[in-house]
Each structure stands twice: as C-alpha cells, then as structure tokens.
Amino acid sequence: MKYFLQRIGFYVFTAWAAITLNFFIPRMVPGDPVQSLIAKYKGQLSTDAMQSLYILFGLDKHKSMWAEYVDYWKQIFHGDLGLSFTFFPAPVSQVISQALPWTLLLVGVTTIISFFLGTSLGVLAGWRRGSWTDGLLPVTTFFSSVPYFWLGIIAIYLLAGPDSFFPSSGGFDSGLVPAWDQYFIPSAIQHSLLPALTILISSVSGWILSMRNMMVTVASEDYITVAHAKGLSERRVALSYAARNALLPNVSGFALSLGFIVGGTLLVEIVFSYPGLGFTLLQALGARDYPLMQGIFLIITIAVLVANLLADIAYLLLDPRTRKDG
C-alpha cells in the first residue's frame, strides 16, 4: 500500500509540474494570438472588440501572470479548456473531441496489432535461433531505426498518386459528412490504410527485437533446463515457461505505448494531413492558439502518466519478485 501511495504521489507531482509548464511555455512563444485572429479577419475589428477578445481568451493584459495561472487551474478543475482561436468560436473541448477519435482509432488499432504480431514473431525467432526467422532481424533492425514520418514520406512517394488506391492525405473523401454509414466508413478506412501501414511496419520491428532478445536470455535459465528434463513438450516449455517470463518487459512496454497512442505519432498525422490530434496541434501552433495547444498537451500528459501508473501496477501483478513483503 505504501508503494502505491508513493507512486501516486509521484505522478500527482509530475502532473502538477507538467500542467504548470503547459501554462507557461506557450506564453513564452513570440507572437500575439489575438493579433493573428485579427489578421485572419483582415483588420475588420475595432479597438473595443480587440480588448474584448483578450479578456474572452484569458489574455487580459491588465492581469498578472499569477492571476492567469490561478484562473487556468480553476478552468481545468471545471473542465473548461477555453475557446479555440483557430476554430473560433468553438470551445477547445469540442475541437479535441472531434480530433481524438481519429487518433485513437488509427494509433490504437495499429499499436495493438503490432504488439501481438511482433511479440509472436519475437517468441518464434528467439526460441528457434538459427532458423529462417533470424533472417528477419536485419530487416526489423533497419525499420525500427527509421522514424515514423520518414516511412510516411517514402510511402507517399512510392504508393500514393493520382491513380493509386491509397490517398496521400486527409481522413475521408471531400464532400462526405462524418457518419456511420456505407459511404463514410469505407472512405475513412481507405484513407487510414497508408498511415496505419507506416506505423505498423515501424513499431512491429521493435516488439520483435525486444521479445526475441528476452527469449534468448530466458532460454538459458535453469528452470528451462528443468522443464526439458521433466520431459515436457517443446511447445509447452516455449509458451508456458520461456515466453511467459520473457513477456514481462514487453507488457510494461505495451502499457507505456498505450499512453503514447494519443501523442506518439503526431508527425505521421502531419505528413498525411490526417485529422487527428497531430494535425490539429500543427494548426494550433501556426495560429498561436494557446488554449488548443494547452488542451492537447494536457490530454497527452494525462494519457502518458496514467499509462506509466498502469505499467507499474501490471509489472507488480505479473512479476512476484518485484513485490515487497511487510
């Protein structure tokens, strides 16, 4: 119990520090978001309207930085993330709620598929060393070292084009309205194939390498030798003894990767102009949209902290050696 309280206290402190940085860093970026919004409307706003915008967006020049900081915390506790400059007058929560499902579906599905596929191939490669599966290692090493967005650029160059089945940008065909119908869903799936393939190729390689190396390490342990001496089948030794113990680091890594589902592939979405949080963040940066940037960073921060906590809990439950007796 003491361990959990210590970990929760650590994550609460980390969340406070991250949210505090989330408040101050955008305000250190040069530029005035209200002036950007005025330029968007080509100077058609009066001086009184400009002052009203500063107050509306929580950028009142007559307020101290500390007062703005306190107001920011009050807004967070009330679930109010402010109004977006980029999508004015839409609130930030609405903008994020529209972009978040795209990221969760794209990155979430590919993360789960890559984990199970990479772990399975890693078990096979580590248990049967010297077989054809070891020939995959140089290829997987190469792809795991290539960033997602570089693979995305290469995929667009090689596979996308005017007559290609794979669209090079967007989340669905122009003219369609997002809905659960027979027109929108196939279009959305078609537009997600290329970015999903990019993420899958790059991420599955890391799972193969890590699982293969752990299987090689575990295969030399004494309990594996004892299992063979008992006359147990090769399949049972590989799955019930070797793979079960080698899986522990991958499980904690998978829990951490779930946290990065929200913000781990921002550049991929930017490359493909995919309507997720990454592309929305790019638009917010260009417009100096403080509330939207802070809202996206807040979602990413919370997701990563929760995933780290779940990883700690999962490792304690799966590995009795990490538990401490009273």
Please characterize this protein's 3D structure:
There is one protein chain. The chain has 326 residues and is an all-alpha fold. Helix 6 (137-145) crosses helix 8 (184-218), helix 7 (148-159) packs across helix 8 and helix 10 runs antiparallel to helix 13. The longest helix is centred in the middle third of the chain and has 36 residues, at 92-127. The chain folds into two domains: 15-77, no CATH class; 92-322, Orthogonal Bundle (MetI-like fold), CATH 1.10.3720.10. The model has no long low-confidence stretch (mean pLDDT 78). It has 13 helices and no strands. It has helices at 2-28, 33-40, 47-56, 65-77, 92-127, 137-145, 148-159, 184-218, 222-229, 234-259, 266-271, 277-286, 290-318.
Describe this structure in a few short sentences:
The chain is mainly alpha-helical and 326 residues long.
Features:
mainly alpha, MetI-like fold, 2 domains, 13 helices, 326 residues, Peptide ABC transporter permease, globular
